[in-house]
Amino acid sequence: MTEAFLIATAIFEKATPILKIHGLNEPRWRRDVEKGARIGPWLQASYTVLDEKKWQSKGACLYLVRGSDGRIRYVGISRNGVKHRWRLSPALDALTLQPQAKRQLFHSQCWKHLEAEYKTSPLMQYEVRFIEGDALRSLIARMQGPLVGFLALGNDDEGLVAGVERWLCNNKSNDLVSWNSAMTRKK
């Protein structure tokens, strides 16, 4: 295991659990948008919001997706809270294009990876956790190590979470941010 993976795992362990994705299932749905690469059709997620209050919170945060095998698949940031990245999208039935009564959980960067992994590991579950700037700053100060330089950003929460995201992505491995494509050093 790499130092970056161990640091990411320490951040994940201190972060707040916000979503549990139990699996994917039919029927397929499409996003209710006119065009674009992320329309679908997509499998539906079976999921639980673990902390509704935190799910609704706003502000700069770092979020991580970990599979039930312990590998951290994705790291991302939001300036407006996790709900704006892991959104509940208006949905259409993939075949009839009729609106569905229930909005569908969706993350534009992760969904194709979730579906691909579902084909080979249908029992895999995922947990999404997030950590806000103040808590991340406090954790970095206690951990020391390579992220301590980001403490020079002071109370700039957006800068802090963006810097940590970039550092983790630059240290990509099989166990760390395998679903991230932006800001990663391709190996």
Q: Average pLDDT, to the nearest integer?
A: 92
Category by helix and strand content? alpha+beta
The sequence of SSEs as H and E is HEEHEEEEEHEHH
Quantity of strands, as a count: 8
Query: Largest sheet, described in full?
Result: 6 strands, antiparallel
Q: Would you give an account of this structure?
A:
The protein has 187 residues and is an alpha+beta fold. It has one domain (3-25, 47-90, 104-170). The chain is built from five helices and eight strands, in the order H-E-E-H-E-E-E-E-E-H-E-H-H. The chain has helices at 3-14, 52-56, 111-120, 133-143, 157-170, and strands at 16-31, 42-49, 61-67, 72-78, 87-89, 91-93, 104-106, 126-132. The two termini are 17 Å apart. The model has no long low-confidence stretch (mean pLDDT 92).
Brief overview:
The protein has 5 helices and 8 strands. It is of the alpha+beta class. The strands form 2 sheets. Strands 1, 2, 3, 4, 6 and 8 form a 6-stranded antiparallel beta sheet that branches.
